[in-house]
Amino acid sequence: MTNAPVPSRSLLFLLVALTALGEVSTQLIIPGLGAIEHALVAPTGSALMALSAFVAAFGLGQLIFGPLSDRVGRRPVLLGGLALYGLATLSMLLVNDIQQFIAARVMQGLGACAALVLARTVVRDVWRAEAGPALALTMIGMLYAIVVAPMVGGLLINYAGWRAPILFAAVMGSVVWLLALLFFRESNHALDPRAGHWRTLGGQYLNLLKDRPYRAYAVALACTYGAMFAVIAGSSAVFINLLGFSSLAYGINFGLIVSMLIVGSTYTRRNIMRLGAQRIVTRGVTLVALGGVSALVIYQVFGLSVLGLDIPIALATLGGGLVLPGAVTGAVMPNAHRAGLAAGLMGFAQMFGATCSGLLLSHLHDGSATPMIMIQAGSAILAGLGFYLLRARLPAELSYT
After folding, report:
1. Where exactly are the transmembrane stretches of this chain (predicted)?
2. What is the number of domains present in the chain?
3. In this predicted model, what pLDDT tens digit does every residue of 98-109 receive, in sequence order?
4. In a domain, 218, yes or no
5. Rounded CA gap, 364 and 60, in Å?
C-alpha cells in the first residue's frame, strides 16, 4: 500500500494556492509599475520588461520541472521550486536598479513555475479520471486570486509603497512552502528514470507535439493567454495614465473585469465531463475572438473609453475562463504516463503566448492604448482561427482514464 495523497479538501486547497502563486506574483505589482519605475529611476515602460522576463522564465522552467518530476518525484521538485521563489522574492526588496529587479523577477518566475506545473500534475496523479472538474476548480481559485490581487496590490502601494506587495508575496510563498513541507506526500509512485534527461527531453516533447489534439489545445492556450496578457501588462498604463484612474481604482476595475474568468471556469467545472474539453474550448475561443475584435472596432470607431474597454475585455475574459482549464484538461488528461511532461509543455505554451505579447507591447509602447488593443485583438483572432483549423480532426470525445 503506497503512502500517496488521497483526494481531499485540504489537498485541493494546497493545489489552489500553488496554482495561484504565479498570478499573484504578477497581479500584486501591476498597479505599482509606474511607482517601481520612479523609485528605481528607470525609463517609462521598462517595468514591462520585468513582467515579460517573469513569464519567460515561468514558461521555460516548466519544460524542465514537469518532466523532472516524472523522474525524481513531485515533492522534491515542488519544495525546491518554492524555496527558490521565496529567496528570489525577498531579493526583489533589496534591488537598486531596474536590471537587478528584472534579474530577481526571472528567478522568481523559475520558482513559481514549479508550483503551477506540479499542481496540474498532482491533480492528474490523484484524481485520475475525475481530474477535469478538480483541475477547473484549482483554476477557479487562481482566478479569484487574479481578481483580488490587483485590489490588494493597489491598496498596499497607496499606503505602504511599492515594496509592500512584494513583501506580501514573500510571506504568501513562505506559507505555501511550509504547508507543502508539512502536509504534501509524494503522488508519483511510478518514477520514470528516462524522463527529464537532457539527451532525450527534446525528442519527448517532439513526440508529444505530433499529437494533433495536443497541438490544438496548446495553440488555443498560448494565443488566449497572449490576448489576456496584453491587457494584464498594458491596462495599468491605459487606465491610470490615459483615463485618470488611481492605483486603487484601477485595481478594483481590473478585478471586476477579470471576475469573468471565474464565471467561465465555474461553467467549465460543471460541464466539462458532460461536454468534453473540445466543445468547451471551442466555445471559449469564440468568445475570446469576439471580445478582441469588438474592443478593436469600438476603439477605432468611438475612441478610448472605460466601457469601450471593459465590456469587450470582459467578454474575452469570459472565454478565457473556458479555454484555460479546458485546454489544460484536454491536453494533460490523456497523458497519464507522462503527466509532468504534458503539463510542462502546456505551461510553456501559455507563457510563450504571454512572453510574445509582453515583448510586443514593450516594443510598440507609445503612450497610447493602441498597442494593447491591437495585440489583444490579434492574439484573440489567432486563438480562434488556430483552434478551429487544428480541431478539424479531433475526436468528438477524449478518454481521460
Report:
1. 42-65, 77-95, 101-123, 135-160, 166-184, 216-242, 248-268, 280-299, 311-332, 339-361, 373-390
2. 1
3. 999 999 999 999
4. yes
5. 24
Give the pLDDT confidence of 321-379 residue by residue, as tens digits: 999 989 988 887 777 667 678 877 888 898 889 889 988 988 888 889 999 999 999 99
Nearest to 341 by CA among 140, 77, 11: 77
Sequence-ordered list of residues with C-beta below 8 angstroms from that of 36, at least 6 positions apart, any chain: 29, 42, 47, 50, 98, 101, 162
Angle between helices 47-72 and 212-236 (to 10 degrees): 150
Q: How many residues does the chain have?
A: 401
Q: What is the pTM of this model?
A: 0.76
- Grid coordinates of 387: 483552434
What is d(CA 135, CA 325) in angstroms, rounded to the nearest whole number?
Answer: 7
- Per-residue cell: 187: 503522488
CA distance linking residue 62 with residue 212, whole number of Å: 21
Q: What's phi and psi for 226, nearest 5 deg? A: -60, -45
Pair 378, 316: CB distance under 8 Å: no
Domain of residue 296: give its range: 9-185+208-392
Q: How far is CA 230 from CA 9, 234, 298, 365, 370, in A?
A: 34, 6, 17, 11, 11
CATH number of the CATH domain containing 133: 1.20.1250.20
Three-state secondary-structure class, residue 401: coil
Cα separation, 361 vs 307, in Å, equals 22
94-100: long-range contacts at Cβ-Cβ below 8 A with a sequence spacing of 24 or more? Answer: 95/40, 96/40, 97/40, 97/41, 97/42, 98/36, 98/37, 98/40, 98/42, 98/46, 98/47, 98/49, 98/50
Is 196 a member of any domain? no
| Residue 191: inside a domain | no
